[in-house]
Design a protein that fits this description.
476 residues; alpha+beta; Helix Hairpins; 3 domains; 8 helices; 47% helix; 18% strand; rod-shaped
């Protein structure tokens, strides 16, 4: 079955059928046990009445056994011989012996009674023994519940009285209840299946609406559409909200990807066009080939391609390495390699053991991007400070340039964003450096923020957490 409604209805019906079957069986067993106990009690009463007569010395032939069809009676002695039976008892089973006294011999043994004996016997007070059997009275055979009660007559003989009570009423009651259950069970199961089907259809109606809308979104590729959210607070409503949140995140991601592709195409167009022009001029007029300009454009293309590749890797969720990196040593190394900077960089390492866990190459890239940005905007000074913070290591890069306006301090971390649009692209860069720096910082569990430097320029704070003691060394 592919339908959830059908599976739910079938499952509910099967469960209810099993439950009702078990409950019905239990009811029948309890009912049968109670009716059997009642029959046993009636049989015990009849047996004790006859046993009481025997204890008083009533001759066997004069025993009052009551209604023979309702309570057939058989009396046996210590040797199992039948000494008395009720009138018209023709056959019996379930009492230990199936013999019955022949007609006219029910009083056999009466001569053993001593009519002058003033004593009396007694009836046993022990719990009687019960057994199920059959008896044929006046040609009619029926099932009975027999109770066996012992009695002692005045002569000291121990006699056992077997008296029965009919089980016909118990059988009829059990059969009636069973028939009623069997007749009512299909109706109950049909009702359960129908109600489950309707309730499930009603519960799944919002899910079907979500499915239809998702199918429409897939067909139209319009990620701005949203699935309907039901007013309830159940799981379906939460599913709809989560689906809409996923659609919103997907729309934003696709939009960001499209903008990224458009911006990358725009950024790549200028150096490629410039390089092509120079090569075409050089091909036509070798003496006019601007080799340094071609090399510069090639370097720009190489740097931009590297930035785009790194951003693609970060967007793909590439994990940072877990190598222990000493930021103090890394800053000194990066600054020492920047021999072509127009403004010397001042380095201040305030503490020792400034280790973090991550990728040495990516962290060096962050420092390089921050220094490139500071060199681009500084007037006379650029400084780097490394020290401990409350939760790890703090690297601060400052310059004495114009700074970043407060309203633009988050925008500078967006991709392909340049606040100095009036500058040439060669001087201003592609606008990817700070975006890469923040993404790498986030991948390392840190953060990158911008503020105002004491000199009036920009201050970039790179905060990274200290590595755990169990950090595993591995090159990223």
């Amino acid at each position: 079955m592919r339908s959830v409604r059908a599976r739910a209805a079938l499952g509910a019906t099967v469960v209810v059928a099993l439950a009702l079957g078990a409950a019905g069986l239990a009811v029948l067993l309890v009912l049968r046990a109670n009716l059997t106990d009642q029959a046993g009690l009636q049989a015990e009463v009849a047996a004790r009445e006859v046993a009481g007569q025997l204890a008083l010395g009533v001759p066997y032939a004069d025993l009052d056994t009551g209604d023979e069809e309702e309570h057939p009676v058989q009396v046996t002695d210590e040797d199992g011989r039948v000494v008395a039976v009720s009138k018209d008892l023709e056959a019996i089973s379930g009492t230990g012996t199936d013999r019955v006294a022949a007609p006219g011999t029910a009083g056999a043994g009466d001569d053993d009674h001593d009519d002058d004996d003033p004593g009396r016997g007694e009836v046993s007070t022990d719990e009687p023994d019960f057994a199920n059997g059959t008896a044929t009275v006046d040609g009619d055979r029926a099932d009975y519940r027999f109770a066996a009660v012992e009695a002692t007559d005045p002569a000291g003989r121990t006699l056992t009285v077997h008296a029965g009570a009919p089980l016909a009423a118990e059988r009829r009651a059990v059969d009636s209840v069973r028939s009623a259950m069997l007749a009512g069970l299909p109706v109950v199961l049909l009702v359960v299946a129908g109600v489950t089907w309707l309730v499930t259809r009603r519960a799944l109606r919002p899910v079907e609406g979500i499915r239809r809308e998702m199918a429409a979104i897939t067909a139209s590729e319009d990620l701005a559409r949203r699935v309907p959210e039901p007013g309830s607070r159940d799981e379906v409503a939460r599913l709809a909200r989560t689906t809409n949140e996923t659609l919103a995140a997907l729309e934003e991601s696709v939009g960001r990807q499209r903008r990224f592709v458009a911006d990358a195409s725009h950024e790549l167009r200028s150096p490629i066009a410039s390089l092509r022009t120079q090569l075409e001029v050089g091909a036509a007029h070798p003496e006019l080939l601007d080799v340094p300009g071609a090399v510069a454009d090639t370097v720009r293309l190489q740097a931009l391609a590297a930035d785009l590749l790194l951003l693609a890797r970060l967007d793909a969720g590439e994990r940072a390495g877990r190598t222990r990196v000493d930021l103090g040593a890394l800053v000194r190394e990066e600054v020492s390699q920047r021999v072509g900077d127009r403004i010397p960089v001042t380095v201040s390492v305030r503490d020792g053991g400034l280790e973090v866990a991550g990728s040495r190459g990516q962290l060096a890239r962050v420092l390089g991007n921050l220094l490139d940005n500071a060199e681009r905007h500084a007037v006379r000074s650029v400084s780097v400070t490394v020290g401990r913070s409350a939760d790890g290591v703090l690297v601060t890069v400052t310059d004495d340039g114009a700074g970043v306006p407060e309203a633009e301090r988050e925008r500078v971390f967006e991709r392909f964003v340049r606040l100095d649009e009036a500058r040439a692209r060669d001087d201003g860069g592609a606008g990817l450096g700070l975006a890469i720096a923040r993404d790498v910082a986030a991948r390392h569990g840190g953060r990158l923020t911008v503020g105002s430097a004491p000199e009036g320029g920009a201050r970039f704070d790179l905060s990274l957490p200290s590595p755990p003691r169990s950090s595993i060394a591995g090159e990223a």
